[in-house]
Prior knowledge:
three-stranded antiparallel sheet, two-stranded antiparallel sheet, flat, signal, Lipoprotein
Amino acid sequence: MKRKLALLFSVFGGVTAPLAIAASCSQQQSVTKSENSTTTAATTEEKTLSPEEVAKVALVKESTAANENLIRMSENVLVLLKESAKMKNSSEASKEDVYLEFGELYFDMSKSVKQEITLVSTQGTAAKFVVQLSKTLSNNTVVSVSKEVEVNGYKEAEAAEQ
């Protein structure tokens, strides 16, 4: 009989203790949430920005968004060799030999971005180019991102001489 009673108390205690802990935790969370909501309401009332500060914040947001878009565009741009340039040596390479290809996602955005291609070096059947994407902001500040790309597909020097 004592064993059955001890077993009953252990089962009963095993069920009620976690329930009591859960109930106390849920009550504590509701108090914390109400304190947080009152403090955020008090801080939002204190913040009033002047028109100059609003303009600065808008400019920072614009430059940050433009910079992020340019970085994403530079990561996803393809620099492709034109068909007419495949018959040239890499030593004859120029920026007119390549063109930029943006995906569908960045096609509309690429129209508002200034694109510059510069030849850096040539070696074997490849040429290295620097692609610079830049955008002018509303206050005439220019934000730009550069990426170095190697383009293969030029003729080998020995094959071109023959």
